[in-house]
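So, does this match?
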Amino acid sequence: MSLGPTRFHRALRDTLTSQEPGLFRWYSSDSYEAERNDRMRLELLRSSYRLSPESHERPYRLAREAAAKIGVEVPIVLYQLNQGERANAGLCFTRDEAHVVLSGPLLSSLNDAELLAEIRALIFKHGVVFHAIVGKLFQLAASLSQAARHVAQCARLPSRAGSRCLSLFQASNHM
């Protein structure tokens, strides 16, 4: 069985390209992807600290091992969330990097086998499957959904403030 976009994802792509071609072109452009990656990296650095491979050899070794076992070849960057007492992990990614975000005492509470399994499941579930099935299309749909929510919030403001809000949003997103 080969993974690919579902019928729903293809229908969503077709609808967006026919009904919102300008938005579709922008949100699927390389320049938007570069801006999204920059915003993501900035937010990661604001909310967490980047773990260096030299001072955190164990989690980096396990992350590389987990990635190799499932065929992921992109570099993995590890972060520790500044806030958060509960042990958890999340993943943010670009086309060429996977950013694993750890929170709470995850590194100190899991042994090597447990941490390896956690990272492998995280990378596979969120990274490999995401890219294999929907890739940029899902990111595009999420971005358009966020844009629609912002436009709806602007529309609830009095007409002059709503127009200003919408024009600022359009300018900041190069629409």
Notes: The radius of gyration is 19 Å. Residues 31 and 37 are 10 Å apart (CA to CA).
